[in-house]
C-alpha cells in the first residue's frame, strides 16, 4: 500500500497547480483595484453618494493596500508566507461579501478598507511563494511570467468584468464575484502549497512599520485630495508635509534597525532598484490610461457599461498571447532589453490612441492601439516582475515582493493624480477657447494617453541606462554597517 505523500512532496509534484491558485489570488487583488470603476455611477445612485464620496470607494482600497504592503511582506517572512497568504485571501473574501451587502456609504468604505488591508497580506505572500516553489531559473521565469501577465490582465479584466457584471446583475456583483474564487483558493492552498519555514522570530520593526505606512497613506491621500481640493489647500499641504517627514524618518529608522522592515541593502542590487523603478512607472502609466479610456468611452463615445467592458477583449487577448512567449524572449534578449522594448511598444500604442477623435470608430481608431498596448503592457509586467526579484535571498522574498506591489500601487496613485490634473487643465483650456464639450474632453484624454506614453519612455530609458550610483550612496547608507545586520544579500 502506497504511503500518503507529505505536503512538501505534493508541493513539488503539484507546483504548477499551486501556481494557478496563487495567480488566481493575485488576479483578485489587481482586479479589485479597477473593476469598481464602471460600477461607480450605478453604485452612487443607489447608495446616494456624491462624486467626492464615490472617489473614496477607490481610495479606501488603495490606501491600506499601498500603505501596508511592506508590513505584509515582512510578516510573511517572519510568520510564514502560506499562513499569511491564506489569512489574506480569507479576509479579502469576507470583506467582499460585506461590500456587496453594503446598505450605506460608511458600510461600503469600511469593507473596502478591509479588502485593501487583506490584499496587502496576500499579494507579497503569493509572489514570495512563487519564488520558493520554482528554484530552477527557467521554471521561475515561466512562473513569474504567468504572475506578471495575470497582473496585467487583471487591470484590463476589471474594466471588462465591471461592465458585464454591472449591466447583468447590478453593482453588488462586482464584489460577490470575488467570493467563489476566494473559497476555491482557501480550499486548495493547504493541499498544494507546503507550509514554509518562518524566519527567525526577531523583534518586529514597529517604528518602521508605523512610519512607512503613515507616510505612504499620507502621500496617497495628499495626491487624491490635490485633484479634488487643489494642490494648495490646507489638507493637501498638511498631508504632503506629513508624508515627507514620515518617509524621511522611515529611511533613518531602517538604517539603524537591528531587524529592519525593509533592509536598505536590497537597493544595492541594481535589479531590485531598476525593477521597482520600472514597476512604479508602469503603474502610473496603466492606471492613468485605463481611467481615461473608461471615461472617454462612456462620456464621449456614449458606450454603455457592457460595451465599454467588451471593447477591452482585444487588449486582454494580446496580453495573454504575449505572456506565452515571454520566457523565450527573456532568455534570448535578457530581462532589461525585453522590459525596455515592451515599454516602448506600450508607449507607441498610447500615442497612437491619442489621435482618436470624439466620434471614433472602435474598429478604425481603437482596435489597433488596444492590441499594441496589450502587447507592451503584458511584456512590461512580466519582465518588470522578473527583474525586481532577481537575486533576492529567500529570507527577504516577502519584503521584496511587497516592495514590487508597493511601487506599482504608489506609482498608480501618483500617475493618476498627475495625468488627471493634466487632462482637466487641457479640457478647461479648450472649453475656454470655444471648443465643444466632446472635443474638449477628447483633447484632455489625448494628453493623458500621451502622458502615459511619456512615463513608459522614461521607464525604458532608466532600464537601459547603467545605474552607476546606487541608492545606498544617495541615502548615505554605510554598506559595511548595514551588511553586518542583513544576511543573505550581496
TrEMBL record:
UniProt xrefs under CDD domains: MFS_MMR_MDR_like
Ranges where the Major facilitator superfamily (MFS) profile domain occurs: 18-471
Protein's cellular compartments: Cell membrane
SUPFAM superfamilies per the UniProt record, alphabetical: MFS general substrate transporter
Keyword line: Cell membrane, Membrane, Transmembrane, Transmembrane helix, Transport
Membrane topology: Multi-pass membrane protein
Entry-linked InterPro entries: EmrB-like, MFS, MFS_dom, MFS_trans_sf, Tet-R_TetA/multi-R_MdtG-like
UniProt name for this protein: DHA2 family efflux MFS transporter permease subunit
Taxonomic classification: Bacteria, Bacillati, Bacillota, Bacilli, Bacillales
Amino acid at each position: 500500500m502506497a504511503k500518503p505523500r507529505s505536503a512538501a512532496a505534493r508541493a513539488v509534484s503539484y507546483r504548477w497547480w499551486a501556481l494557478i491558485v496563487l495567480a488566481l489570488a493575485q488576479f483578485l487583488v489587481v482586479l479589485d483595484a479597477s473593476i469598481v470603476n464602471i460600477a461607480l455611477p450605478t453604485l452612487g445612485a443607489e447608495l446616494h453618494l456624491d462624486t467626492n464620496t464615490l472617489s473614496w470607494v477607490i481610495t479606501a482600497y488603495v490606501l491600506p493596500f499601498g500603505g501596508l504592503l511592506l508590513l505584509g511582506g515582512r510578516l510573511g517572512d517572519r510568520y510564514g508566507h502560506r499562513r499569511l497568504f491564506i489569512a489574506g485571501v480569507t479576509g479579502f473574501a469576507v470583506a467582499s461579501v460585506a461590500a456587496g451587502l453594503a446598505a450605506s456609504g460608511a458600510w461600503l468604505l469600511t469593507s473596502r478598507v478591509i479588502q485593501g488591508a487583506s490584499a496587502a497580506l496576500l499579494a507579497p505572500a503569493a509572489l514570495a511563494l512563487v519564488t520558493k516553489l520554482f528554484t530552477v531559473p527557467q521554471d521561475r521565469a515561466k512562473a513569474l511570467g504567468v504572475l506578471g501577465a495575470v497582473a496585467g490582465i487583471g487591470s484590463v479584466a476589471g474594466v471588462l468584468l465591471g461592465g458585464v457584471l454591472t449591466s447583468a446583475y447590478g453593482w453588488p456583483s462586482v464584489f460577490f464575484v470575488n467570493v467563489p474564487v476566494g473559497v476555491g483558493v482557501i480550499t486548495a492552498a493547504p493541499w498544494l502549497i507546503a507550509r514554509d519555514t518562518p524566519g527567525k522570530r526577531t523583534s518586529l520593526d514597529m517604528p518602521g512599520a508605523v512610519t512607512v505606512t503613515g507616510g505612504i497613506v499620507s502621500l496617497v491621500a495628499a495626491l487624491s485630495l490635490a485633484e479634488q481640493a487643489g494642490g494648495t489647500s490646507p489638507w493637501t499641504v498638511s498631508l504632503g508635509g506629513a508624508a515627507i517627514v514620515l518617509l524621511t524618518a522611515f529611511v533613518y529608522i531602517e538604517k539603524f534597525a537591528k531587524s529592519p522592515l525593509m533592509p536598505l541593502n536590497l537597493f544595492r542590487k541594481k535589479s531590485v532598484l531598476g525593477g521597482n523603478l520600472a514597476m512604479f512607472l508602469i503603474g502610473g502609466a496603466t492606471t492613468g490610461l485605463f481611467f481615461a479610456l473608461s471615461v472617454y468611452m462612456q462620456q464621449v463615445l456614449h458606450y454603455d457599461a457592457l460595451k465599454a467592458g467588451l471593447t477591452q477583449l482585444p487588449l486582454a487577448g494580446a496580453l495573454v498571447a504575449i505572456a506565452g512567449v515571454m520566457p523565450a524572449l527573456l532568455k534570448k534578449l535578457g530581462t532589461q532589453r525585453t522590459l525596455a522594448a515592451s515599454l516602448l511598444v506600450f508607449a507607441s500604442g498610447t500615442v497612437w490612441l491619442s489621435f482618436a477623435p470624439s466620434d471614433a470608430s472602435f474598429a478604425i481608431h481603437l482596435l489597433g492601439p488596444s492590441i499594441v498596448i496589450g502587447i507592451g503592457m503584458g511584456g512590461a509586467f512580466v519582465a518588470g516582475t522578473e527583474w525586481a526579484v532577481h537575486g533576492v535571498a529567500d529570507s527577504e522574498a516577502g519584503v521584496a515582493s511587497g516592495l514590487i506591489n508597493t511601487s506599482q500601487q504608489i506609482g498608480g496613485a501618483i500617475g493618476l493624480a498627475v495625468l488627471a490634473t493634466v487632462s482637466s487643465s487641457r479640457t478647461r483650456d479648450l472649453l475656454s477657447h470655444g471648443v465643444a464639450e466632446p472635443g474638449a474632453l477628447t483633447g484632455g484624454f489625448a494628453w493623458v494617453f500621451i502622458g502615459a506614453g511619456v512615463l513608459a519612455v522614461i521607464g525604458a530609458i532608466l532600464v537601459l541606462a547603467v545605474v552607476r550610483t546606487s541608492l545606498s550612496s544617495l541615502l548615505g547608507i554605510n554598506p559595511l554597517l548595514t551588511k553586518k545586520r542583513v544576511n543573505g544579500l550581496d
